[in-house]
Amino acid sequence: MQKYLINNLEDYEGQEVTLMGWASNKRESKGLVFVILRDGSGWCQCVVSLELVGEALFEEARKVTLESSLQITGKVLKDERQMGGFELQASSIKLIGESNDYPIAKKEHGVDFLMDKRHLWLRSQRQWAIMRIRNKIIFAIHEFFQKEGFVQMDAPLFTGNACEGTSNLFETDFYGDPAYLSQSGQLYGEAMAFSMGKIYTFGPTFRAEKSKTRRHLSEFWMIEPEMAFYDIFENMDLIENFLRSVVSSVLAGCEKELAIIGRDTQILKNIVKPFPRLTYDEAVRIIKGEQDVNGKNAITSLEDELSSVKTRIILVQTEITEREEKIKTPGMKKGEIGFNQAQIDKLKQELGDLEENERNIPQWLNSARNFTYGNDLGGSDETVITRLFDVPIMVYNWPHEVKAFYLKRDPDNSKFARGVDVLAPEGYGEIVGGGERETDEKLLIEKINEHQLPMEAFEWYLDLRRYGTVPHAGFGLGLERLVTWVCKLPHVRESIPFPRMYGRLLP
RNA sequence: UCCUUCUUAGCUCAGCUGGUUAGAGCACAUGACUGUUAAUCAUGGGGUCCCUGGUUCGAGCCCAGGAGAGGGAGCCA
User: Fold this and answer.
1) How many CB atoms lie within 10 A of CB A430?
2) A332: domain range?
3) Is residue A294 part of a domain?
């Protein structure tokens, strides 16, 4: 049997085709049933007319419920009003699988409920679009590295040693010995780069951070390229080309998906502009408001934001009260009441978010004003600084104390390590962390002791310095954080099919 | 681990200073309507007000403890 897909209906205009999928919506009036069929490739309205199909099939169509699966045969007609530009005039309809009381209604839901129904939520249009963009990003990542001559080589997921400290690790039992789920393939990447020259790993990573924020997952996918004979500056060039290439692929190949989620693509298009490179010292001055960027000051723009949030809160509250009064007026049509109630729901949602901001911004302001030189940037500091830019920025040369033991000490100033973080614009913050690796065995041993890591677990790693060490560098990209920024999602949990996070193991 | 907001019908939410039998919209069921776009209209069924204890003549509302969720800090991709 020939398989037809909704996304290429245009090839069959005027012809009879059979579509198979699920009913994502149904409306009926006398003699007509409208079924919105989705088949994974797209959405298409199918019109079942009593006149054309007869009594029996029409009854079948009337029995269609949300998300029941169907096979519909009919003629493809052009119809400008429809989403894909086409609709199907049904000649026959067959129910494949019933669906009773589908829990996800045609209206807004809360997060907790949707997360509990994640297996069904994935069917909705917005989630469909996000997952398609995720897929495109993954494909573009492979495409970029393969074209650049990298070889994909994966690191193990069971590890005996912690690469960046022992906390935040998931412990498991490995034939009676404790083993940890990998939180980075970094060290193995270095070994593989010394075999292959340029490699990248692509796999899951596990971090037992008890974080409940919009940017944390316990299980996420990381891409970690590692290159022999690269210094930090060549590394930054690569990161920039890489992100530019991936985002450009999404812009070129996911126009429809970006439109569905309502992503304003202007900022994504800025990806062609050079990424500003700031040293840690510059970044700190900007965060503390001592240095302006593009005519904007971190502190004052945050203060402005706070006052506009406060103004908006008052406006929203007034509108809610007005609409609530309006609903109470007697004789109002049911439809108008419904409309107003929907508006009130939306406004309340916005009010909740605004109040959240009203609570958080003063804390962020406080932490920016009192930032202590020498500390790592916190989540709020990243937000504060990235709001001033419309392209990703790179912050490099960090105080060596706050960075991982394997980062190379800056030869020009031993206070600094040659690490680099890439922060996504629009307040998204860190999406990439990387740097040039330490090649000096003595300095590494010093650092391992300083961090109180078990030396014997790193003997193999030190071998890489003993047998033909070379300058090398690499970075790690959090796939979900990139997806979240590209789609401008409010939370990482929508960027992965089944998120695993603190307090969430099902479904 | 800490700070903060929240938990009322299947879902999203009202519920005034503590006062009769807890409400609306959506969803669902039945009916009306020949082009609907979250269709509309009419009718109907649907409740352990998160749990435990307390105050009170009386608790969805007040108090204490607990559970769960959202957001944030720390940590991080």
Assistant:
1) 17
2) 301-366
3) no
Total domains in chain A come to 3
pLDDT at position A25 over 90: no
Q: What is the pLDDT of residue A333?
A: 62
Identify whether A287 is part of a domain: no
Contact, A215 CB vs strand B, < 7 Å: yes
Q: What is the pLDDT of residues A388-437, one digit of tens each?
A: 898 999 999 999 988 888 999 999 998 999 999 999 998 888 999 999 99
Question: Is the domain of A356 the same as that of A487?
Answer: no
- Check whether residue A400 has its CB closer than 7 Å to nucleic acid strand B: no
Domain membership of residue A10 (yes or no) is: yes
The predicted structure's pLDDT at residue A136: 97
pLDDT, mean of residues A452-465: 89
Q: What is the mean pLDDT of residues A80-96?
A: 86
**Residues A90, A46 contacting (CB under 8 angstroms):** yes
For residues A280 and A299, give the distance between their C-alpha atoms in angstroms, rounded to a whole number.
18
Mean pLDDT over each residue of chain A, to the nearest integer: 88
Asked whether residue A342 falls in the same domain as residue A401, the answer is no
Q: Is the CB of A349 under 7 A from strand B?
A: yes
Same domain membership, residue A419 and residue A350: no
Q: Which nucleotide is nearest to A433 (CA to C1')?
A: B77
Does a structural domain hold residue A231? Answer: yes
Tell me the helix, strand and coil percentages in chain A, rounded to 5.
45, 25, 30
Per-residue pLDDT reduced to its tens digit, A476-487: 999 999 999 999
Residues A73 and A160 in one domain: no
Distances (CA, A) of A467 to A154, A227, A450, A460, A462: 22, 17, 24, 11, 9
Helical spans, DSSP H, in A216-296 = 232-253, 255-260, 266-269, 280-287
Same domain for A259 and A317: no
Measured in whole angstroms, how far is the alpha carbon of residue A355 from the centre of its chain?
24
* Nucleotide B74 C1' to residue A269 CA (A): 35
List, for residues A28-82, the tens digit of each pLDDT value: 888 888 888 999 999 999 999 888 888 888 888 888 888 889 899 999 998 877 7
CATH code of the domain covering residue A93:
2.40.50.140
Nucleotide whose C1' lies closest to the alpha carbon of residue A113: B11
Cα A36 off chain centre by? 28
Q: Looking at residue A163, which CATH number applies to its domain?
A: 3.30.930.10
Measure A324 CA to B20 C1' (Å).
26
Nucleotides of B under 7 A from a protein CB: 1-2, 4, 10-14, 24-29, 32-42, 68-77
Nucleotide nearest to A214 (CA to C1'): B71
Same domain, A73 and A124: no
